[in-house]
Amino acid sequence: MAAVRRPGGELIPIDAARRIALNAQGFAEPKPSGRVDVRHLRRAIDRVGVLQLDSVNVLCRSHYLPLFARLGPYSRTALDRMCWGGAKRELFEYFWGHKASLLPLSSYPLMRWRMRAAERQDWNAPLDPDLTAPWSVVAGMRRLSVERPGFVEDVLAIVTERGPLTAGEANPDGLRRKRTDPDPDPTTGRMWNWQDAKIAIEYLFCTGRVAIAGRRNFERLYDLTERVLPADVLPGPGPTADEARRELVRISARSLGIATARELCGATGGHFPLPTATAKRVIGELVDTGELVPVRVEGVPQQGYLWSDAEDQPVRARALLSPFDTLIWNRDRTHRLFDFFYRIGIYTPAAQRVHGYYVLPFLLGDRLVARVDLKADRRNSALVVPTITAEPGIPDADIAEPLAAELDLMADWLELDRVLVTADSDLGRALTF
Hints:
single chain; alpha+beta; five-stranded mixed β-sheet
């Protein structure tokens, strides 16, 4: 999305912009002093807007961590019930942009325009198509539509008869593509081992004809949507595409507090990605209604937008942040707001890793002050800290005590008996347990 050459509006100092972002994400509120219940979980989820899913389990599944960062210890079983608990379900799985995520059921009608676009396979549109599916689905369906017409309906028939089931269990003929088979796109059938049944059932998921009923060892279980989601979220066509887009950008704006257009809904890197022309129009409409206020952010050349109800309150947070936390999932925004250049090590070859494998930024007050590599050694019941690095200019003495307290709290929450610091650094040696 092209940057606005001369941003307009009030100048917001970078320190204030950072506090606004933290307030929007719920970090200015004190953590509950008593037991965390479902009401706390609902409120925190409403603040972040979305919980990103990820399969890496070196510490714990990433969607659990943002709520721990904001609330402290809580029952992960309670969140499981909200995600996959049948009649108690309050969240559903879908794609927030390209990210597999959990969203409140109230957002389900807002996704129907994307489901309809996926059913029409609008990704074949030549100009500025809506982002309706992951590339593996797009490339796979282009091939299946030619090679195996009718295959998707065969997969749907199996789900109808036998669901909930995994993608592998939904294969109607048992055929499996081999790595030596011709395949112009490496993400279908090779890199991610996406067999044809997986492509077909993920396409059905994108269209809303099937939904995620649960997880088996974190593998998706698919079933007909009407057997998964409450009846009251399903009837009717839902909002128009324009109405849904406006509401989704509102959710993004409330969650971010202050952001550029690219951070709100840019086609790449946006909190909720939209095509460039669509994003420009929707943001303009929310500016016209007064819900978004154009501002200039110190040190940011792009036009900024402030959510009209955003607050700038002092922040005294203490939290270890998942690499997929909505506060930091846009790495460029994290760099601008916190002067914190962050890349997750799991995608970096071991020899090139600087700060570790699964590195969590440590938020203290309103700054990111350290990088903490963490691993749950479940066999030895230990929360292991292989690497820990303080940010330049931050004294170890300011970090050690609050970080040790947070690590202790996390170990207890994960039902681990101890914290084991193996990091060979000044800050690592300063931690005591």
